[in-house]
Amino acid sequence: MFKKVLRTSLFFICGLMVFSQSKKTNISSIYIPAKQELVLNYPSYKGFIIDIWNRGKFNLVFSKVLKENDSIIRTKTLKEDSFNSFFIDKFEFMRIKNELLVPGKISYKIRKGSKPKSNNFNKNSKSFFLVNTTIQNIKVYIPGVKNPTINSNTRLFLNLKIGQSIFFRFGNDMIELIKINDSIQNNSQINLADLVDNAINK
Q: Is 58 helix (H, G, I), strand (E, B) or coil?
């Protein structure tokens, strides 16, 4: 009983801190005490997107939890100094767990949003997010489509036909980062830094 009250109080206090900061900036920062959990829940939203940066020196565990029975839908470990985005449906909430003996720190931004409807996409195409977790802006080249620049710590939503390639300019050469294929899951997130690293070093 004591642990449950402690977690609820922690969320209430943190929620006030975050709310007061969000009026001034789009990005809020907060510490998660050792061996504690932080719950992010916005019941007035029909769904929301949360962009999260792990500002600490250790990994944190993120879980999407179903409100009805407190069951975990999806769990992801966010490594130190990394970024990710999550869509939280109106029937879910986000739980961030710090399993370590030292405080963790995150920065995050909440955006109203809805889950992309996969049935709107052609069966011969794939929809996904290209995520730039680096501190640099990265320009990619998609022949016949566009040549977008993906800013630092942001992501770009793409819907591309199977067989379409994405390229990156390395010196005077254009190197292929990825060719769209059936193995890509709709609405998945692909790390741009990993694609560039693999393409340069293969």
A: coil
How far apart are alpha carbons 182 and 97 in whole angstroms?
A: 34
Spans of all domains in the chain: 2-112, 118-201
d(CA 102, CA 2): 21
The model's pLDDT over 71-115, given as tens digits with 9 standing for 90+, comes to 888 888 888 877 877 888 888 988 998 888 999 999 888 877 665
State the virtual CA torsion across 194, 99, 55, 57 in degrees, nearest 10: -80
Task: Specify whether domain 118-201 bears CATH 2.60.40.780.
Answer: yes
Cβ contact 158:131 at 8 Å = no
The CATH code for residues 2-112 is 2.60.120.10
In angstroms, the CA 123 to CA 190 distance is 20
